[in-house]
Amino acid sequence: MSGPVAEVPDGVHGGVHDGVPGAVPGGVGAPRAVLHDVRYSRFTGALRPRRSAVGALVASGVRRPLGLRRSAGAKVWPFLLLAVAYMPALAVVAVPLLVPQVGVQPTELIGYPQLLATNSVVVLAFVATAVPAVLTRDRRDRVLSLYFATALSRAEYVLGMALSAVALLLLIVLGPALVLFVGSIATADDPGRWIADSAGDLPRILLASLVVVLPNAALGLAVASLTSRRVVAVGGYLAVVLVGPVLTRLVAVVVEADWPLAFDPAGGPVLLATTVVDGAPAPQGALAWAVWAALVVAGSAVLVGRYGRGDDA
């Protein structure tokens, strides 16, 4: 921004004549030196609340792993996983819609527990490739100090990134279940009666989705917070969710009991989610829920502790 302009008299330059070092005062064609009064001004627009900054961070955290506003190549893998996750629900909804003579409900072709179990591998692949991108780029580019120097505190940054990861995973876990639920309404002979009879399924679907999402988001973010390299974060998460089930099954065989299966970081949350939808007790009982809670708390503690150190390392 340019303010008032002051012309500098010839000869009063302190070693600079007419704006050109060493120029002779009054030389032919010499430019006239000027001083610009440049200064900051107060912002006079409307100030948005701090939650707007967190909301913008969440939106950015969701767009980045999905490849939105990036090249077409960056969208291939995440949208391929989304297509695979939604395909079973879309297929069973399309059958009664396209062939009314079939006379079956989508939930009779595939139930919510089966849908969760079918998508469990897709969820692990999505967490491994999408969640690390929420954190690693900011650490790699060392821009955390810029975030914390503005309207975002460290706690708000962690909250925003956690909400981004949860939103991403709900998109791939809760989304297909909602497609199945809404599709069942659309294909029912009496939609109003079907809604009245199945309204209790909706909160169970939401709770079951959170049972799958929260531990995976906590574990993925915890691993990603320990490195600035995405490939290392992906490898670390896959090591946990692939080696963990093998170890728990080996221990179960050795002790000839099923309780070690409660420590499976990959299959445990999915198994608990299916029991939530069915309303049945968990196979390993309170131990399975204790392990689930410990995984969420431990992952959150690592994430908060890492960003509470006050550096970008």
Please tell me about this protein's structure:
The chain has helices spanning 50-66, 72-98, 106-109, 112-118, 120-141, 144-148, 154-187, 191-198, 201-224, 230-255, 267-278, 286-307, and strands at 5-7, 16-17, 20-21, 34-36. With 313 residues, the chain is mostly helical. The strands form 2 sheets. Strands 1-4 form a two-stranded antiparallel ribbon. The chain has a two-stranded antiparallel ribbon with strand order 2-3. The chain is globular. Mean pLDDT is 83; it is low at 1-20.
Strand content: under 5%
Sheet/helix structural class: mainly alpha
> Spans of 5+ residues with little confidence (pLDDT < 50)?
1-20
Morphology call? globular
Q: H/E element string? A: EEEEHHHHHHHHHHHH
Report how far apart the termini are: 37 Å
Task: List the total number of helices.
Answer: 12
Q: Characterize the main sheet.
A: 2 strands, antiparallel
Radius of gyration: 29 Å
Number of strands: 4
Task: State the helical fraction.
Answer: 55-70%
Largest beta sheet: strand ordering: 1-4
Average predicted confidence as pLDDT: 83
Element layout with pairings:
Blueprint: E1 5-7, E2 16-17, E3 20-21, E4 34-36, H1 50-66, H2 72-98, H3 106-109, H4 112-118, H5 120-141, H6 144-148, H7 154-187, H8 191-198, H9 201-224, H10 230-255, H11 267-278, H12 286-307
Helix pairs in contact: 1-5, 1-7, 2-5, 2-7, 4-11, 5-7, 5-9, 5-10, 7-8, 7-9, 9-10, 9-11, 9-12
